[in-house]
Amino acid sequence: MESKILRFFGFMWNTLSLVMEAVAIMAIALANGGGKPPDWQDFVGMVCLLVIDSTISFIEENNARNAAAALMAGLASKTKVLKLLYWFLEILSVSNLLISFLLMRVFLKVIP
After folding, report:
1. Taking the complete model, does pTM exceed 0.70, yes or no?
2. How far apart are CA 51 and CA 48, in angstroms?
3. I need a labelling partner for 70 at 20 to 30 A (CA). Which of 14, 23, 94, 107 fits?
């Protein structure tokens, strides 16, 4: 089972997130020029947007996983019943074929 924290950080490893990380790093690394300090407001804004984007994506995927798990759990018993019914019908069709073969052989004296 995968850790939820690792899955959350996995959402920071896509194209949009990597671009946002690059912009945040450039906002700090590249000074404004003329001896001005780095642009902290842009850095904090980009990091906040990155965290918000990853959080929304994580919550949506987590809800989808939970819904899929609940759906599969609900269908598991129905699937077992349908497999059993299919198996039973297969046996009936084979037995009907065998009975038909025996009846032809007995009554019609047909030898294959």
Report:
1. no
2. 5
3. 14
